[in-house]
Amino acid sequence: MRTFSKKKKLPRLLTLCGAVAVSALLGGCGQSGVPAESFDRSDYYTRGIGSYPGDPGEDFSPSLRPDYSTYRNIALLRSAYNSSSYDYNLTAQLVTDGVISDKQPQYLDLSTQNGDIARREREWMIDQGPYSRNAVTGEDAYFLFTLNNWKEKADKVQFRGSVAYDENKIKDGYEIVCEGSNDGNTWTELAALKGKGMPGKASKYKAHSDPNKNSWDPGTLPTRMLNETLTFDQPGEYAYYRMRLKMEGAAYWAFFEMNFYNQDKLIDLLPSKFFNSAWMSATTGEEWVYVDLGSQSEFDKVKLHWINKAIKGKIQVSDYAKQWVDIANLPGGDANLDEIKLKGKGRYVRVWMEQPANDGRYILSEIEVMGKGGLLAQPAAAPAATKDEIRLSGGNWKVQRASEVTASGEEISKPSFSPENWIVATVPGTVLSSYKNIGAIPNPNYADNLMQISESFFNSNFWYRDEFEVPEGFKQDRLFLNFDGINWKANVYLNGNKIGRIEGAFIRGVFDVTDRVVPGKNVVAVEIIKNEHIGAIKEKCEKNTDFNGGILGADNPTFHASIGWDWISTIRGRNIGIWDDVYLTSTGKVTIQDPFVQVVLPLPDTTSATLTPEVIVKNHDAAPVKGVLTGKIGDITFEQPVELAANEEKTVTFDPNSFSQLKVQNPRLWWPKGYGSPYLYDANFTFKVGDKVSDSEDFKVGIRQMTFNENNSILSLFINGRRFIGRGGNWGFGESNLNYRGREYDIAVAYHADMNFTMMRNWVGQIGDKELYEACDRHGIMIWQDFWLANPSDGPDPYDPEMFIANAEDYVKRFRNHASIGIYCGRNEGFPPEQIDKALRRIVKEDHPGLHYISSSADEVVSGHGPYRALPVKEYFSLKNGSDKFHSERGMPNVMNYESLVRTFSPEALWPQNAQWGQHDYTMEGAQSCASFNAIIEKGFGKPNNAKEFAELAQWVNYDGYRGMFESRSLNRKGLLLWMTHPAWPSMVWQTYDYYFEPTAAYFGCKKASEPLHIQWNPVTDEIEVVNYSAGLRLSAWCRGR
Predict the structure, then answer these.
(1) Adjacency order of strands within the sheet including 497-503
(2) Nearest residue to 959 (alpha-carbon basis) of 1007, 1008, 1002
(3) Using CA atoms, how far apart are residues 617 and 628, in angstroms rounded to an integer?
(4) Is pLDDT above 80 for 216?
(5) 7 vs 4, 55, 740, CA distance in Å?
(6) 706: preceding bond cis by omega (within 30 degrees)
(7) How far apart are CA 357 and CA 321, in angstroms?
(8) Is 443 in contact with 378 (CB distance < 8 Å)?
(9) What distances in angstroms separate CA 460 from CA 273, 412, 463, 568, one per listed residue?
(10) What's the rounded Cα separation, in Å, for the pair 813 and 1014?
(11) How many CB atoms lie within 10 A of CB 982?
């Protein structure tokens, strides 16, 4: 994203004390509530260094102010909280969304003969993930899907799973029967699989007697693998589908997939496909919903729009959402609308429910609080136009859920259209961020607030709309509307006409609007098309993480990690929206784009360099054009005449054999951290037609050459002829909701340089902001650049490889001018599909010559695959996995300091460790296996008594473990990337500093172990070792002594 204000040089925060001091100076604590009468920012949950974005010049979120003059529904689009919700869709958010419904909502039940399946497990069989599963015990068992308030017609079912059995009890014969019903009592047999012997195929896998046990210990029960398709004899439309499973001796049945089809089309059984604007409780006992009005407010009426009402309860008010005062009783009765006159004053209004009608769950569609106060969003001012660019940020952007819009794109993009009930949008930003920034949803990063936000609400297309004016004299020969990034797809309209479409999250959209823009008001409308395969919510708990990834990988390139991983929770909406900049540019007939300078050094000599600059030029006119292309790198200038046919686009290259000034003597080279200075030359390309500048672009050039070899199937990297040792870590997102701007990237990358790191990995290519590349250029941090393919176990191959390849080609051209890009990788922990792999290899070779491409991040010439849990330091020195190769992933949990724990968890969840800790990634099982971290603390220090004691003791483990991971890799010095060094949200694992930029002790462990000349103790050999990571002159790279 663009930086819209002049950047100030930020001091590096070199010590923990320094970081704490700076954070203390810049701001205070971060709780879910708002400091009384403080409305300075739309994001009031954090302050100072942990506020995103922190630079006001980069922040286009609206300001929020109370309105004490207008009598209105002050609960409209205000954050709401519930005591429970039945699923991830029917949550508290929907009682203030302004959409009133009287219809019974659709929801899903999954049950067995042993009872109902819990919410977090209810969708596992039907989420299309390869490893999430449901299990049921018993010789005569069943799974029952209940489709409440809807039906589906199916003609076959495909299932994949296993049955574990006691071979001493087994007898011949089994039955697997699928049945349908519309009342849950009368059943129709749809298909059956029956036979003697046992179903499926024998497996070498031995299962545990407990189906819920997650352990590496070998099991004892033999298993049969099941992968069957049953075609229905009597296909019909049913509200209940039951799979009966019968076999004597069966211990339990486990199913990874249960897919229903109709005419070969997969039926989506996830209830998130329905939008029902109502909250539904999980129980029929005492429950509550409250609204945060945002300010001290006065009100005289509360309206409750019920679908299944509370016939007994109260209206309560509070100033701090802690102590509540009763101000009215619920009226009861049969009416679905309760209008309760009262006299209230406070910030929080709660509906306390004691008894439901019909003994059913409470279902409440809307809460209206009539009064004065609340908060209203005021748009941020759009940046001032320059002579050749108008940035469409802030200003008049609005957004609305597509289900609430009946007009077409052509109509919406006309000045006459009135966007009533649309909300102020934050552009650039995701849809979710827009709703958070106006206060319609709570901060999703705090505590368990994600559970208050509706999955189904954001599982939708959304419309954006902006009004703008073009200043007189701005328009030259051509005018372009530019989109630097949307997710997932978009249809773009301007002034009543569709002007184009964008497909994929990492491709630019550039539209010639010369003949579409008019004097006065102009209107752009963007239909954001949601991901087609959003998958299901992954809810972590204290015990485990759920499984990574999922079906969202089918939509790549997209923000795949937004579906949820073991380092981040599922992001509602999957980061759809206009996430990067939108702007108008004005040029002459010829434009220039994507400059690149290839560098060749006469290695090992670095006293000269041969530069080959190139740039793409395009004639947008219907007639041929002649002009002059001028280039500049530092003090070197060069130019050549260029002729372009009508509408021709081509790459113009400056051959150093024809331009001798491009053979540079004694250049200032760009070096990574620890090797020298990351010097950057100012550069420019300008195209002139006659004496008039048609287009011009400034950029930076780092004169450096990367070379590589794969001798002995081991990847070695060299920078300017010197062996490059990659030390650093993996990044997922910059920030989970894509809120990072230039300031945040600069701080984070500066931290990496201060830790003596040399490289970061843009894991699965999840970061597309140019500010990351610019910060790495400045600070000398090399980038391992992945493309958008996760481990094959974490999601399918892209369903549209052509879209993937188009995004890759545009992406490489866009960022290839950055000296910090060191290597490209096709896939995380696996290999790309052949079509994509070949295309990526070609793209890197043709569009970024001089760079190397490897297919896999963890195979062949490099290694990976962890471990990811905390080990005693001595064990790191004994690990053989990848000891002789560049190792792309190794990590352990990394606990925040106590102050950050307080900013992350609700007060009641601070201690002991609980499900909220699990939601912030601190789970006992899974890759992080935090039980081992706890065990190391207890063995070394005893059992902590509270969160503060735990956080303080954890810093010792943080320091020793992270230092040990790097020290243990010093023998071959092939490089190590931690999993991970950077947090995308308030996490308790895999980081060196926390979400609020507070370094943990791990930061200093890494910094010490990676210092240029380092003395360490090897606990395996009991020897003292001296390690030289310096790129300068050295007598011995590695030596030992007692």
Answers:
(1) 423-424, 398-401, 462-469, 521-529, 489-494, 497-503
(2) 1002
(3) 11
(4) no
(5) 9, 9, 15
(6) no
(7) 27
(8) no
(9) 9, 18, 10, 22
(10) 40
(11) 27
What's the whole-number mean pLDDT along residues 520-542? 96
| Order of strands, sheet of 722-724, starting from the edge strand that comes earlier in the sequence | 706-709, 716-719, 722-724
Structure tokens belonging to residue 521? 């008001």
Contact 371, 342 (CB under 8 A): no
Q: What is the pLDDT of residues 295-347, one digit of tens each?
A: 999 999 999 999 999 999 999 999 999 999 999 999 999 999 999 999 999 99
**Residue position matching structure tokens 């601190």:** 922
Q: What's the confidence (pLDDT) of residue 220? A: 87
What is the identity of the amino acid at 450?
L
Q: Look at strands 152-165 and 250-262 and give their pairing.
A: antiparallel
Q: Which residue has the higher pLDDT, 27 or 553?
A: 553
- Rounded alpha-carbon distances, angstroms, from residue 393 to 1, 379, 736, 768, 769: 11, 10, 21, 18, 16
224 in Cβ contact with 165 (< 8 Å): yes
Does the pTM of the predicted model rise above 0.85?
yes
Does residue 850 carry a pLDDT above 70? yes
Do residues 613 and 596 touch, judged by C-beta distance below 8 A? yes
Q: SS3 sequence, 427-477? A: CCEEHHHHHHHCCCCCCCCCCCHHHHCCHHHHCCCEEEEEEEECCCCCCCC
Confidence bin at 748 (pLDDT 50/70/90): very high
Residue 14 has pLDDT above 80, yes or no: no
For all residues of the chain together, what is the average pLDDT? Answer: 92
Report the percent of the chain where pLDDT is more than 90.
88
Sign of CA dihedral 582, 587, 590, 595: negative
pLDDT tens digits for range 404-459: 999 999 999 999 999 999 999 999 999 999 999 999 999 999 999 999 999 999 99
Residue 727: strand, helix, or coil: strand
pLDDT tens for residues 29-85? 233 333 344 444 334 333 344 565 678 888 899 999 999 999 999 999 999 999 999
Measured between alpha carbons, how far is 803 from 49 in angstroms, rounded to an integer?
38
Distance from C-alpha of 929 to C-alpha of 913, rounded to nearest angstrom? 14
Each residue of 1019-1039: pLDDT tens digit? Answer: 999 999 999 887 654 333 333
Phi-psi region of 496 (alpha: psi -120 to 50; beta: other; left: phi over 0): left
Concatenated DSSP letters for 552-596? Answer: GGGG-SS-GGGG-BTTBPPPTTTT-EE-S-EEEEEE-SEEEEEEE
pLDDT of 954 strictly over 90:
yes
Q: Which residue has the tokens 């008019």?
A: 518
Residue type, 911: W
Rg over CA atoms, the chain? 30
Structure tokens at 136: 């049921």
716, two tokens: 């070695």
- The angle at the Cα of 379, spanning 378 to 384, to the nearest 5 degrees, equals 140
pLDDT value for 971? 82
Whether omega for the bond prior to residue 667 falls within 30 degrees of 0, making it cis, is no
User: What is the rounded distance in angstroms from the CA atom of residue 610 to the CA atom of residue 656?
Assistant: 7
